[in-house]
Amino acid sequence: MDISYIQLSTIIMAIFFGVSLFIVSRYLGLPTIVLLLIGGIILGPEFLNIVKPQSLGKSLHLLISLCVAIILFEGGLTLQPQGFKKAPKMIWKLLTLGVLVTWFGTAFLVYLLLHFSIPMSLLTGSLIIVTGPTVIAPLLKRIKVKEKLYHILHWEGVLIDPIGVFIAILCFEWMSLEGSALTNIVQLSYRLLIGILIGGSGGYIITTLLKIEKIPEEQVNIFVFAFALFLFGISDFIVHEAGILTVVIAGLVIGWANPPKLKHIQTFKSELTELAIALVFMLLAANLKLKNFLHVGWMGLILLGSVLFVIRPLSILLCSYKTSLQLNEKLFLAWIAPRGVVAGSMASLFSVELIRLGHPNAAFLETFTFSVIAATIILQGTTAGYLAKFLKVEELEKKGWLIIGAHLFSRKIAKFLQKTTGGICIFLDTNADSVAETQKEGYLAFQGNALSTEAISPELINSIGNLLALTDNRDLNQLICEKWSELIDKHHLYRWSSQSPEMEKQIGGLGIPIWSTLTKPSQIAYSLKNKEAFIREYNLATLKKQTTTTFLMGKTKGKLNLESKVAGINGTDNVLVLERLSQHLSELFLEKHIFFLEVASYENLILTILEKVKSLHPELPFNRISSELLERERHFPTTLAHGVAAPHLHCPNLENPLCFVAKMDSGIQLQTYEGDAVEIIFLLLSPESAPDLHLRILAEIAKTVSTKEAVNQLKHSKSVDEFLSKLKEKGENR
Q1: Nearest to 596 by CA among 680, 657, 659
Q2: Which residue segments constitute the domains of the chain, with CATH numbers given?
Q3: Each residue of 3-44: pLDDT tens digit?
Q4: 648 belongs to the catalytic site
Q5: Which of 154, 359, 593, 648 is catalytic?
């Protein structure tokens, strides 16, 4: 078979199965690299022989180098300066003293237990210095530890990679090139200089171009990706293996500068990183020879145990001396140090090269490193969550609420939220008067743009775990949720939307849409201010369903429920409801109550609408409704101006008024009994107990379609969604 076909097949299979295992790991809740390691071995030459990394030859080194560059550039982008400020002393110690303890401690044990040469011992120790962001990041995302511990492990994982790589290359060159110590130190210094200069200047150039917006928005992601690879290639061309530090520094500069579109770049890069991890680890795992693991022996197992239970705890003990870390936090850090892609890739490459050069024990490099990778990932990855809970280092639930829109409606909601959840409510609004009124009521309120996360100080942001967007613009509410999703879990983002739940599912977007049956928040606030509506708290068992009562929120199994449903809420729990003394027309418009029809006559039109109403509300007495309505329309058709009709009826067994709207499709005009042409019809059914409400809604219908321009806009709507949007807009702005 053609070797080029085998190479292509190997890469394709590694990518496909690697990405598939990424998805499977999410469902199983297992560390991704565990599945990649197992999958690579099974698909490799040892078993199914589908993935054949040997076929790539020297291209394997090139492919791994590019993937590692992508991984570490994304790691640099995610480093935040405020995170470093959480524990600068501990981070610096881990990157200096911690590196030396791991390196020399492991090297000493290798020399003592396995009797390797000093250069070989130092090289073996250097390969497990790195902890790796590819394993740390998903682990921390899954277990949610205290913020300080999160930043310590995240910074260590990203910045220790280039340090470990440089030290490993220094040891490798000592063995393979047999150069003098001075020569190797000069080479290391040269790499550091090139990496810092090119990485720093390259990151600055990218940041500047993004800030002045010279790169078209649709090309920003691929431009940054291409530029990062260009920096990597230039650095490696000047001095071998300098590209690793270059991309980390470049990513760090861009991330700290926080240019426009950084969030989109990070999202794009994180997807590329997952692809790179899937490809590299599948290839590395497939390249392993299982027989080498059987020859490790007792001394090898003792060495492995010492790395896990002696070297890492000793490193943390020394690095945390005279820091603010508590004993439980130190114990957690002492256990968490999983190795990942970078350690495995360096071990594989060095092992192959040293075997070619005839160095004894060269195969042990790869075997030992992957043993550490497998042991740390499986043991630490599966026990980290339980240990975090046992040591009480889990992140405390953030109960605070950020409420966008400082009007009377949101303040009433905040009062219930603070009482029910115990969390603080912080308001953000662009209106200075609204902010001042909210502050007078004793709330924390700030004037600012909700699309900027910098509108709230970092100290307050740390207490916010939920967001409620209550502006009148549903699209703005969605944008606000998307912006704050980088700081708040997507399951804790809520937004008012006028769209029906069905339409929201089609559109998608971040933020849980709530209260779609309510009119705009500012209009509710207006009704509250004018005593047309009230927000009250009830015990569910005593709540009496009224014609104008709308459920807002309550507790379900101890958790807050904002999804406008009382189902599942215990009878002893309190709920918050909106009680309206009156009801506006715009509140009655629902997507399922809008029909586009083609019928032959005005009478058939009414009957067709009633059939649809019957399917939605089978509890109503339709024989009586249809007979009374048709009898009235035969003698006194309820036609308005501009081709609109509004048949209406007081209906028994009805608690809330119902309004249905039909538009004649394809421009069909129907003649009433008096010869009037009808293209739009409003059918209003009201409770018999609310005659005043019935008359007021009819008046609002007349005002909504009082101009020919308004009716024409409704007539030319191409979809139910468009028709409903225009209808609500006109009903609210009547």
Answers
A1: 680
A2: 55-270+295-391 (1.20.1530.20), 400-582 (3.40.50.720), 587-732 (3.40.930.10)
A3: 788 888 999 999 999 999 988 987 886 777 788 888 999 998
A4: yes
A5: 648
